[in-house]
């Protein structure tokens, strides 16, 4: 499971659990998804020691936590339309497009990782980001949208 799935399952199984994400991902749509799935906080791994300690203390007390430099990205993400229309495609990175093309060729996560010289966790993160950007639940939904949008 990736962080998004883990957050969703953990918050359902343990409703009083306070989940504080520590990650390198600074994409607004992912951040909003994490909060929607039950996380109480979202900090970047490059945060200072003091910020991390204070974040843990605040999360324990039930306060919402967000790395200060992510506020603008989060607001931007919230103001965007949640589902892209055919003429209004989500921003897809070059690497994400590579992952999409390999998924369409029926490559497994491990095969994609090997081909692109990435870890399987990084490939899973790209897939999760694409699912959020495209508002789909799985690879089949993603490929259907990509084909509708003539990206491959």
Describe this structure in words.
The model has no long low-confidence stretch (mean pLDDT about 85). This protein has helices at about 5-15, 30-35, 50-60, 70-80, 95-105, 110-115, 120-135, 140-150; strands at about 20-25, 40-45, 65. It has a 3-stranded parallel sheet with strand order 1-2-3, with helices on both faces. By secondary structure, it is mainly α.
Number of spatially distinct domains:
2
CATH architecture of the largest domain: 3-Layer(aba) Sandwich
Round the mean pLDDT to the nearest integer and report it: 84
Q: Any idea of the CATH topology of the largest domain?
A: Rossmann fold
Q: Please state how the strands of the largest beta sheet are arranged side by side.
A: 1-2-3
What characteristic shape results from the CA principal axes? elongated
Topology pattern, helix = H, strand = E: HEHEHEHHHHH
Low-confidence stretches: none
Query: End-to-end span in angstroms?
Result: 27 Å
> What radius of gyration results from the CA coordinates?
16 Å
Task: Summarize the main sheet.
Answer: 3 strands, parallel
How does the helix and strand content classify structurally? mainly alpha
* Topology, number of strands: 3
List keywords for this structure.
single chain; Rossmann fold; Arc Repressor Mutant, subunit A; 3 strands; 152 residues; 2 domains; mainly alpha; three-stranded parallel sheet
């Amino acid at each position: 499971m990736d962080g998004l799935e883990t957050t969703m399952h953990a918050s359902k199984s343990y409703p009083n659990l306070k989940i504080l994400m520590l990650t390198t991902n600074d994409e607004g749509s992912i951040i909003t998804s994490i909060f929607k799935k039950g996380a109480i906080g979202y900090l970047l791994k490059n945060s200072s020691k003091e910020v991390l300690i204070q974040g843990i203390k605040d999360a324990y007390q039930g306060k919402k936590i967000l790395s200060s430099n992510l506020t603008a990205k989060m607001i931007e993400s919230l103001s965007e339309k949640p589902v892209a229309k055919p003429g209004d495609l989500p921003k897809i990175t070059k690497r994400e497009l590579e992952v999409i093309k390999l998924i369409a060729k029926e490559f497994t996560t491990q095969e994609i990782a090997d081909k692109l010289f990435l870890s399987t966790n990084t490939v899973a993160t790209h897939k999760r980001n694409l699912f959020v950007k495209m508002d789909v639940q799985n690879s089949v939904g993603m490929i259907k949208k990509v084909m509708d949008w003539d990206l491959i």
